[in-house]
Amino acid sequence: xxxxxxxxxxxxxxxxxxxxTLLGFLDFHRATLEWKCDGLGADDLAITIGPSTMTLGGLxxxxxxxxxxxxxxxxxxxxxxxxxDAVDWRSNRDGDWTRAAEHDPDEVRAMWRDAVARSRRIVxxxxxxxxxxxxxxxxxxxxxxxxxxxxxxxxVEEYSRHNGHADLLREAIDGSVxx
Length: 179
Hints:
single chain; Four Helix Bundle (Hemerythrin (Met), subunit A); MST-like; DUF664 domain-containing protein
């Protein structure tokens, strides 16, 4: 039975095996981002701080891209899925960050939630097929082939780093603070 904290985030297991610990921390950090973006409208999701162009909406679309990039594109070896297959990455290297400005908040949240749901299904399939040692179908350009274990740890790192940004952005928007 998973514990849930006062913000509704699932607590990672304190004595779980490797898989449940990795997935527990990833789901905790996904829930943290969702909490930081909860209840905000389009104007709030577009707020920046100082010279940075980073926004909470941009974080949501960036992390939707990152979910698809690591789980669908690298782990499964699938081609880029919509909407990422339509981005002209040469002219807009930040296409994942800027996508939020083109959509209303509900669409941005749905884009991120759909990517997370796809990732969860892919992880379940990979775990059933080969466990954490499942190699990515698409190696890196240098030929290195990370495993599902590496991808999960990287995703925990990716969310952890960006949740720090989300903390600062949310505090600037309405003063909300919290871990």
